[in-house]
Structure formats: C-alpha cells, structure tokens
C-alpha cells in the first residue's frame, strides 16, 4: 500500500501574508483633517487694535456658522488616523519602547524648534518698541494649541498596549470608553458632579476614537462602506442633532466665547456621535480617495507632505501671529466685519499670505521632522519618565504659551521647554563603557606579511 502522502495531492502552499506599507486613504484623511484644522484656525480670528491693546473675537461665533463646525471640527478624524497609522505600523514591526521612543521624538522635536525661535523673539520684539500686550497675546496663542500634542504624545507611547487591547477585546474597548464618556456627561449635567470630572473625557473620548482607528487597521471595519457607511454617517449626525436639541450641548462643536458649556473644553460625549458621522462619511468616500491617490504624482506629494504634518501644525499659529502682526502693527489693517463683502474680498490675500509663511517654514524647518530619530535604548522606565516630561512640558506651554515669565518659574515657558528637552535626552542612547574605551596600542608592531584571515581576525576581535 502506498503511503497516504502519495495518494493525496499536495496541499498548495499559502502565499505569505503581505502587509501594505501604507494605507493611502489614512494618509489622505490625515492630511485633509490637518488642512481643515489649519484653515479653521486661520478663518476664526477677528483682530483689531485699540491704541496699544489687541482686541480679538471669533468669526465662527455668528449665529448661522455652527453647522460648519460639524465638518470643520476634525479632531475625531485626527485621532482616528493616528490610531490607524499606529495599528498599521505595529503590524509590520514589533512594538516596544524603541518604537514608542521614535514616535515621541518625532512629536517633540518640532516644538523645541518652535521654542528656540519664539522664546528669544518675544523679548526682542518688545525691546524693539512693539507694544507688549499684542506681542504677549501672540506668544500665548502660539502655545495654546499644543494641548493636542500633550495628549497625543501619551496616546502614541501607549499605542502598542492599546493595539494589543483592541486585538483581545474585539470592540469592547471602544464600547467601554464610550460608555464611560456618556456616564461622565450624565454625572456632570444630570447629577451636579463637579465640573472637573469632565476632564476625564479628554482620555475617554479621544482614546475611544483612537481605538476605532486601530480596529480599522486590523481590518475589522471592512463592512463599513457604501450604504452602510452612509447609514452610520446619517445616524451619527442625527444623534448630534438630537443631543443639541434636547441636551445641554451647544450647537457649535468648537468652544465659543459666552457659551455656558463647551463641547471641546472639556470634550463631551457628543463628539463620539460627531466622530461616527464624520468617519461614516469619510469611509463612504474611501474608494474615490484611493482612486485619487493613484493619480501620477499624488502619492509622492502625500508622502512628502505627510513627513512635515506635525511641523505644519506647530507653525500654523506662528504664521497667523506674524501675518496678523504685520497687518495690525505695520499696516494698520483690522479684520473686516466677518462674512461681509470686504471680508470675502480680503480673504484670498489673507490666506495667501498665511500660506506663504507656512510653506516657507516647512521648507526651512520641515527637514527636522523628516530626520530619522536617533537610536534609543530606553526601557520601559526611561520611556515612562520621558513621556511624563514631554507631555508635561507641552501641557505647560499650552497653559502659558511663550509669554515671558519671571526667570525659571515653575509655570514659565522656559521650564516647560526644558522639560521637553530633558525628556528627549532621557530617550537618547547612553554610551557604554565599551564604546568609550579606546583601543590599547600594541606593544610590538605587527610583522610585515600577509594580513590575517577574516576568520582569525573575527576570532581575535571577539576574544574567541
């Protein structure tokens, strides 16, 4: 009798599973979301100068503008793409302290470049005779939006365990985080809990959206396309509308002056419904986005811009401070009445000047972000210390900006910047004794003759 292995046809070999290097949809969505963040911040300011005092207002405070914020408030998309990018990266390589250290380095370095420019610039401008109040206001605003990086740096470092959690929970992680955010809102608005409890949603809301991106990277949202995606989008926006109509939530998805409640500071659970609406709409458009990415030159442009996206986020507010300062202090031009004919006529010049300044900053400073992070041998303890220093420093800059403070005060920008720089130093590879030890010269010169064989050289080098 023949062996069964000869009677049965050989089982075909399974091709190795190929993990794509990039997901063009995630890349495009990330760039589009960041572009909307920049555009929204550039359209909101209403600036005027009364003597030496800068007056500011928000153009989006107009009664009819709030529906625009349902699409322009794209922080849900930013955290979704962050989770998706982390999940895709960790599918290709093992996650650990070195992976997190590289990501943390890339987030923090652009801020140090910003601090190196802005910390000395503020006193130089006032010493040159510019009014102190506008200069200090611009310095504070330049750091105000770094709250995103303060949180994002922590979430990024925790991405490896968050990806493993998503693999085990199969969606229960998102449900638990979302339920926690809803309970926080119920306690705040229904049970009279302290307002400080609302800051728990900074973690619950944004980590929940981050985890949705992780599940997308794992292929668990394969069904969310076409009609299903549109249904999710419609349901998400419908829940937002219902919450605004019946609850304490304001209609604007960004904080507005004078509102008793802000949907962003701290985040409310309604942002989860907004995330569902925006993600459903984005995933419905995914085939069109992928087709666009296949056009000649688009992929290369996406890769090039993706390498400077954090630099763009960090420097779009300094661009606003520079152009606004020139307009107000140099040319005596105030912002026209928002959405008036004069406002619309001046909009191309305003956005063109801002874009020119930002592009120049990206060309000069973007190479810092693109530069590979130095190797790190940091373990879990050093990585945790570096994360606390970097995120704490970024939070300090969020609260104080780059406005001058007395010396190295605990709440000053110099101390916050020093914390970020120290965090990066903690991550740096430490030289070992062997690396510092200089080779000892031989007492006797080597006799002339043929060089030793490679095997013998290797054995002598390793001490074999």
TrEMBL record:
Compositionally skewed regions (Low complexity) per UniProt: 454-464
Keywords from the UniProt entry: Acyltransferase, Membrane, Transferase, Transmembrane, Transmembrane helix
Bias kind Pro residues: ranges: 442-453
GO molecular function: acyltransferase activity, transferring groups other than amino-acyl groups
The organism's place on the tree of life at top rank: Bacteria
Region (Disordered): 436-464
Transmembrane parts of this sequence: 64-86, 107-132, 144-167, 174-191, 197-216, 228-249, 269-293, 305-330, 342-362, 383-405, 411-428
Plastid is among the record's keywords: no
Keyword Transferase: yes
A Pfam family the protein falls into: Acyl_transf_3
Sequence ranges assigned to domain Acyltransferase in this UniProt record: 24-358
Descriptive protein name: Acyltransferase family protein
Upper taxonomic lineage: Bacteria, Bacillati, Actinomycetota, Actinomycetes, Micrococcales
């Amino acid at each position: 009798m023949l062996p069964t292995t000869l009677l049965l046809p050989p089982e075909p070999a399974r091709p190795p599973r190929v993990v794509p290097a990039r997901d063009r949809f995630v890349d495009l969505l990330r760039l589009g979301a960041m572009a909307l963040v920049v555009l929204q911040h550039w359209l909101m300011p209403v600036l005027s100068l009364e003597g030496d005092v800068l007056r500011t207002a928000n153009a989006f405070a107009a009664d009819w503008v709030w529906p625009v914020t349902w699409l322009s408030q794209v922080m849900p998309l930013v955290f979704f793409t962050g989770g998706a990018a982390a999940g895709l990266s960790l599918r290709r390589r093992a996650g650990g302290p070195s992976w997190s250290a590289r990501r943390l380095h890339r987030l923090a370095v652009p801020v140090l470049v910003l601090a190196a420019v802005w910390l000395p610039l503020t006193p130089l401008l006032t010493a040159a005779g510019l009014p102190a109040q506008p200069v200090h206001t611009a310095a504070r605003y330049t750091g105000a939006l770094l709250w995103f990086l303060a949180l994002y740096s922590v979430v990024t470092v925790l991405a490896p365990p968050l990806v493993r959690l998503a693999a085990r929970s199969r969606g229960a992680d998102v449900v638990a985080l979302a339920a926690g955010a809803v309970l926080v809102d119920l306690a705040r608005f229904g049970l009279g809990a302290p307002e400080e409890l609302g800051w728990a949603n900074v973690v619950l809301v944004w980590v929940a959206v981050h985890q949705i991106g992780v599940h997308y990277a794992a292929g668990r949202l394969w069904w969310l396309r076409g009609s299903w995606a549109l249904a999710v989008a419609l349901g998400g926006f419908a829940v937002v509308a219902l919450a605004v109509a019946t609850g304490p939530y304001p209609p604007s998805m960004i904080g507005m002056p004078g509102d008793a409640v802000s949907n962003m500071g701290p985040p409310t659970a309604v942002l989860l419904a907004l995330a569902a609406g925006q993600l459903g709409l984005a995933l419905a458009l995914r085939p069109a986005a992928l087709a666009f990415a296949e056009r000649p030159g688009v992929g290369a442009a996406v890769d090039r811009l993706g390498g400077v996206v954090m630099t763009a986020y960090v420097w779009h507010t300094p661009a606003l401070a520079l152009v606004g300062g020139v307009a107000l202090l140099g040319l005596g031009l105030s912002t026209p009445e928002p959405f008036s004919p004069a406002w619309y006529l001046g909009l191309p010049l305003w956005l063109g000047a801002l874009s020119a300044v930002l592009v120049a900053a990206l060309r000069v400073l973007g190479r810092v972000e693109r530069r590979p992070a130095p190797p790190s041998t940091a373990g879990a303890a050093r990585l945790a210390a570096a994360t606390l220093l970097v995120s704490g420093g970024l939070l300090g800059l969020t609260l104080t900006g780059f406005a001058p403070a007395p010396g190295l005060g605990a709440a000053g920008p110099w101390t916050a910047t020093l914390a970020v720089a120290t965090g990066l130093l903690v991550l740096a590879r430490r030289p070992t004794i062997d690396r510092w030890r200089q080779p000892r010269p031989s007492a006797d010169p080597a006799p002339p003759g043929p060089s030793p064989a490679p095997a013998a050289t290797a054995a002598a080098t390793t001490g074999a």
